[in-house]
Amino acid sequence: MARTVPETLTDAPVSERVVFASLRARLPDPWRVWHGVAYSAAQTGTEGEADFVAAHPARGLVVIEVKGGHVACRAGAWFQDGRRLREAPALQATREAHALVRAWAARFGAPPPFPVAHAVWLTGAERPPREPLDLAGRALYAADLADPEPALLRLLAAEAHPLREPLDLDALEALLSPTLDFRRDWVMRRDLQDASIARLTEEQARAFDAFAEFRRFRVRGCAGSGKTLLALRQAHVWAAAGKRVLLLCFNLLLAERLRELVAPGASIRAVAVNDLFRELLGREDDGTPEFWHTLARDALAPARALAARRAYDAVIVDEGQDFSPDQWAAVQALVPEDANFLIFYDPAQNIFDRDPAALPAFGCPDAVLTTNCRNTRGVFATLRPYAPDGVRAFPDAPAGDATEVYRAANRPALRARLRALLARLIRDEGVPPQDILLIGGRALPNMALADVLADFPGLRYYTYRKFKGLEAPILILVDVRDGDPLWDRAARYTAISRAIHRLFILELEGR
Q1: NERD domain location, by residue (predicted)?
Q2: How far apart are CA 154 and CA 320, in angstroms?
Q3: pLDDT digit string, tens, across residues 141-150
Q4: In whole angstroms, how far apart are CA 5 and each of 97, 176, 328, 371?
Q5: What letter would DSSP give residue 427?
């Protein structure tokens, strides 16, 4: 029986569980098998995941991409259960094998001295009379599940690179599944968990497909479901097609982050909606509440003029639930009649109490994203009671740490707790201060945090309103209190979901 990493597999697609069971039970020792090998651009030049890596010390290594269900190839295009695949399975397997070769060379200073083969395993298919050219000799089928070793040996025998020296399985395991003290090496732990979380879900893929079918479309997604990443991706698709794209959001910090992520030279402008309105009106903030109350209404006419000039061919709105009715009226006015218009929103994060009816409707069903791809399971367990029904964690999300909650009767006692926690994270565990974010419900002058921030350079504080749409590796919620209207259900849902890896909550006792 082959040794597998992990020893059991329960949380994976049926096709992968079937392959796992076959390889574990029917490959003899000394075969070794790894499932779900994620790799990052730092070592390989690209990012992705190999479904399986099977290795034999005297034969070599095989990278396997699994495709279950009904797989079909028509006119060179590949389909799985009726949905067109973005990449041919053989090309995906080839890329994964090349990534592993580059990772080995980066770790050991030379290419692997053993054959590296790749294959696509079509678990629900029989071998056809004639294989597609790109799969010829590189495919395994349902019949191979009964006895996989001959098929793997055939693949390795066909490789042009012979075995120059035995494959060191322990060295391979150190590369693919190292044993590390993650708590002492926070940066490595963070990077590994990032690679595990950041994957395209089926929901996201379906939404992305819909963007090509509908000129105007809405995507309703839970916190952490990848709305901003999809918005950026579609912006670049349209820009690559020659369109001028306007990418709007409400928060200034999110607008800054979007600008950082826009590819150099792309015809994409990312801007906060009020900054766009100020620009259209030629106004500067005069410090009065009336300035912001009238800005959107006054921007309506210049927005129409902008649309008439055809300044943008596509408009994308992120965090649409934050927009007021007046802002929506002006945004709709600036979209040319035949332009693309795409809106991402999450009604559960409506912390500004906007009118949901103001959100433009386009006459077709919304795409719905219910999978949280941001948080570890430890963070998601704290988020779940505040999330809408149906929201789930990404199936392969790392476990992470359980949320730690500290309570104190007053603010000075809670600040002492905060200092002790920061000392543990930064001085004992080696966490960079910039990976830690303090989140509260009130502006900084009202939080009595100036001394804390001065003593821990690099540490940041924001309200959850200002930090909406963004994320942080480690989040500390400060001065949370039951019964405080600033910490209602929507606020807690919005704030907690900002944490990627670890969450700490500092609560004031009483109401």
Answers
A1: 16-108
A2: 54
A3: 999 999 999 9
A4: 18, 10, 51, 26
A5: I
